[in-house]
Amino acid sequence: MAEKQKKSGGLGETVSVIVQALLLALVIRTLLFQPFSIPSGSMRPTLLEGDYLFVTKWAYGYSRYSLPLSPNLFSGRVFGSDPERGDVVVFKFPPNPSLDYIKRVVGLPGDRIQMKDGQLYINGTAVAREKVGQIDNPDVTEVNRPVDVYRETLPNGVSYDTLDLTPDSIGDNTREFIVPEGHFFMMGDNRDNSTDSRFNVGFVPGENLVGRANIIFFSIASGASPLEIWKWPTEMRASRLFNFVR
């Protein structure tokens, strides 16, 4: 009998440890960090397909979208603060909140945003932009040709590189957008290959923000899965590991 109780106690202890570990993982994922993968090239050259990164959940406070399954328990955000221009943010796609998008914040509430001839304007002033080079990257476009790289510097001093794939693309000239209160204007760094606030993403409500992109913890090329360990020697992008997202 004592032996049975001992075995039973051992099993119960194991189950208890597993449950506690799962609860701890859930709390960390909900309140602290959540992993995301990059499925498309809309944020090139900052983020590449196959990048895996952690998003800080507390950066902008919490909304119902911070919780698993996004239960409609409350509206708005608690313990919240607004993102700054230039932050790279994961958010819920407004027309379909089951989808996660990642873009850069370029417009804050009350801002006037417009693209003219490929140049970003904020409140009527052109954002500083200079050509810094070209990349010859066959997986950026269908045709293997050089792609221009520009460095943009926002009014608050945040700088980042953008790609200009084609001249006179549909997103190079837009109407003027006035960002409503409580909303944000998002754009991808790959300006000619990004579905963002210029198009059907629209203005992103603050409630839809999931968190700020923080650090790349893994990166693998050619659509390989990180579980395919045998591909790591040839496909893993070691130079991108533990890079902060800026």
From TrEMBL:
Transmembrane segments: 12-32
Gene Ontology cellular component annotations, sorted alphabetically: membrane
Bilayer topology annotation: Single-pass type II membrane protein
Alphabetized UniProt keyword annotations: Hydrolase, Membrane, Protease, Transmembrane, Transmembrane helix
Sequence similarity: Belongs to the peptidase S26 family.
NCBIfam families: sigpep_I_bact (TIGR02227)
Name listed for the protein in its UniProt record: Signal peptidase I
Taxon lineage: Bacteria, Pseudomonadati, Pseudomonadota, Alphaproteobacteria, Hyphomicrobiales
